[in-house]
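User: I'll paste a sequence; please echo it back and then give the predicted structure.

Assistant: Echoing your sequence first, then the prediction.
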Amino acid sequence: MGDRGKEFASIAYTVLVVDRHPGVKAAARLVGMNYSTLHSRLIGRTSFSADEVRDLVRAVPDPRLVSYLLDGTQFIAAERPAPQEAATTIQRGATRVVVGAADVLEIVDASIAGGGFDHRNEAVVLKEIEETQRALASLRLQIEGE
């Protein structure tokens, strides 16, 4: 397979095998693929097709899968709002944004107080920023009624 699709397969492996979200058997059923075919994609024996990637993202809505696909582009993944519970969803979304921003500030403050910003702190801050950006983009969609 070479490097083609290896990173995506690795992330999908982490989601489905390591985290068991929802697990390989369940995911295979959800995407209409047999277990061995999906497993061969996850271990890098064969590559995912574009349609299989789309089907997997639909069946397993894990932000890591979408974030990988959008990495390095001008786009940010956002969760589409469910039509029901609009007011509650907006309030929860706004809370996620504030908590995420506070988490970023807390990590940065602790790093500076602790003597500096190293690569571990940077990785944690960037992960928190990405989650907060996704929460903010999702909140915008919720408010706009998308």
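The mean pLDDT is 85. DSSP finds seven helices and no strands in the chain.
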